[in-house]
Amino acid sequence: MTVEEIIPIEIDETPAAIRATLAEARPAARQTAEILRSKKPRRIYIIGNGTSLYTSMAATYTARQLADGQSPLVLAFPAGDFRYFMPAITPQDVVVGMSASGEFRDVLAVFEQLRGQCPLVGITHVAGSSITRLADHLLISSGGPSHVPVMTKTYASTLAALHLLLLELFQAPPDYFDDLAASADRCEAALKSAGRVVPDLVPVIAAYEHGFYFGAGNAFAASLEGALKMKEMALFHAEGSETWEMASGPATVVSDKTVCVALYAGDVRDASTADTARHAREWGARVLEVGPESTAGDWHLPVEAPVYPSFASLALVPPLALLAYRVARARGHNPDQPSWRERYYSQGMTHILG
């Protein structure tokens, strides 16, 4: 690694960022949850874009695991879609805006429009950013500043903060909090495994032009983020799909010209993902399996499964980010200084936080 390689350093800092966020954001999460429960919310909308959208989707599985018939409905929306096609909002609704930089324009526009109409919760990595001045309640993720436009440790830390908020809101038993905390150890172990496995994968995967990532449940949310990292860093066409959706659309173009990445969350739905992985190999693709076991693929990147599958993406995504970075370098790209930077800035996606 050279001194110019910033992203691998930030990826290595991810476990520490998770631990710091869980320690420092929990008081705010607990206080915010108490206030929200007192208002008896009926719907909680979580909005974001790109990584922040996939973060929102990943955390909704926590709400699904804990909800009963009287619980509020928790929904993830793209921020722009929510902004321009907003449902009727009442005081019993809650809008949670996810923006690592605190500056994404569609999230800010929604908050400006809804001020005083319903509780607004902001989750960001940057104290003093614009979202902190618009939100009624605020959670700041931790782990130190990020100096690159690609979200790596900021993905995990903002997701950890959102998990905390939902666990507190749904008054989860202590073992949920314990398992969330253990995500940092699982992430650390996964990155060590990736350090051994990734060098052998890079020369092969770098020669491809198309990748399909897929998983079920929380692993589906992780597949979207994993594919995004490959697109952003390696400028490599990659798509994330839900396991059963792989049979509709992606299956028609999977061939010996594609690499597939099967993600496992460690629950019964993984069997269907393994079946899809086997089909992908039959169709000619090379397959990387990421999770606790390998049953059908060409390669295996070990990642320990959580007790509660809703936390799986915290350990699944960081090794995929490392793989994407190494593939990018092998293809002659420098993700620390991406060519698309201004395209993101033009949309208010100012992710350089340092």
CATH superfamily of the largest domain: Glucose-6-phosphate isomerase like protein, domain 1
Mean of all residue-level pLDDT scores = 94
The CATH architecture classification of the largest domain is 3-Layer(aba) Sandwich
Q: How do the helices and strands follow one another from N- to C-terminus?
A: HHEHEHEHEHEHHEHEEHEEHH
Q: Please provide the count of β strands.
A: 10
- Spatial separation of the terminal alpha carbons: 21 Å
- Regarding quaternary structure, what we see is single chain
Global structural class: alpha/beta
Major sheet summary line = 5 strands, parallel
Question: Approximately how much helix is present in the residues?
Answer: 40-55%
Low-confidence spans: none
Number of domains: 2
Shape: globular
Q: State which percent range the strand residues make up.
A: 15-25%
Count helical runs: 12
Write a structural description.
This protein is an alpha/beta fold and 354 residues long. It has two domains: 7-177, 3-Layer(aba) Sandwich (Rossmann fold), CATH 3.40.50; 184-330, Rossmann fold, CATH 3.40.50.10490. Helices cover 48% and strands 16% of the residues. It is built from twelve helices and ten strands. The strands form two sheets. A five-stranded parallel β-sheet has the order 2-1-3-4-5, sandwiched between helices. It has a five-stranded parallel β-sheet with strand order 7-6-8-9-10, with helices on both faces. Helix 10 (270-282) links the parallel strand 8 (258-263) and strand 9 (286-291). The radius of gyration is 19 Å and the shape is globular.
